[in-house]
Amino acid sequence: MSTKLDYLKRCILALHPLEDKNWYISLLGIPLPSKSHAALKDLLDLTLVRTQDSLSYVGHVLSEDLAQPTEAKLIPIVDWKKDQPLFLPTDEVTIDKTWLSSVSGSLVTTVGCLMVNAVALHKTLGSRFPYVNGHITVSSLEAVMGPNIKDPDEFKPNTRDISVAEKQECMDRLWFFTKLSPIVTAASSKKMITPAPGTDELRKKLLKEAEGKLADPVTVAGIMQTLDKHDKAYLAGDRTSDIMSDGKATTARKKINLMYGETNDFVTSLTSEPIVTPMSEGINVSPDTLYKYMNDLRLASYSW
Questions:
Q1: How far apart are CA 116 and CA 241, in angstroms?
Q2: Tens digit of pLDDT for each residue in 43-101?
Q3: How many domains does the chain have?
Q4: Could you tell me the residue range of the domain that residue 115 belongs to?
Q5: In a domain, 190, yes or no
Q6: Kindly report the CA angle at 126 between 123 and 128, in degrees rounded to 5?
Q7: Which of 202, 205, 227, 237 could make an S-S bridge to 258, C-beta 3.0–4.6 Å?
Q8: CA distances (Å), 135 to each of 127, 132, 221, in order?
Q9: Final residue of a domain: which of 45, 60, 87?
């Protein structure tokens, strides 16, 4: 038996799972049940394996006859919840130097930050470079590394000096994480893919109250703000929403569920001509409305 945290620590210490892109699919997504365990002996140590109602990892143990190769067995992760990711990148964990030698004392960090440190920084620089907590970017790391980067004839072992080759390897490993996004996506929650109850009724009520005033951009903005407040109350506490609600996702959700609202155009105007229905009700193909969708798409493509 094992816990999620025990498993994560074993992976951090072994490192090899973190260097395999496919491992992140099982860890950060919802793992699918395996069809067969016949080839268990051929799986790498720490590989995640899902049965119908449990999630386990492959652990290799010494056989009683030490002359024989190690045997593989499944070690269940007892605190995994069915149909949920084992971890989210934003999950907080408490680590110390038994996880990575670059950690000083006890430290609260996120799973995502821990992975980047283990794969890119600690693997390359060890304890010479302190653990970086919080938002990590290439430019911020290069700024911190800069004073310690030395040419081969200036590099001194057993110091905080960083060779040019080490810096390059560190950056290459950091870029590894930019290749994960096409294969690892946040699992959608029920709330994230459904409209807030009562949205249609609220929109119709607001439009009726504003009848004859929709040419005023301020009035339209007020309607959108009220609908947005209603939607945010519905999404409050939803972890998937917290992760996915960036600018583009928020705009898409508003257009799909709340009200399409103002459209971009190639002509600046002081008046408003909003589309008052959401995309979930279909596209309005009337001649005085359809062109607004088209102009919105055209202007967006020009501004990409």
A1: 23
A2: 888 999 988 888 999 987 655 555 555 678 889 999 998 888 899 888 999 999 999 99
A3: 3
A4: 88-185
A5: no
A6: 145
A7: 227
A8: 20, 8, 33
A9: 87
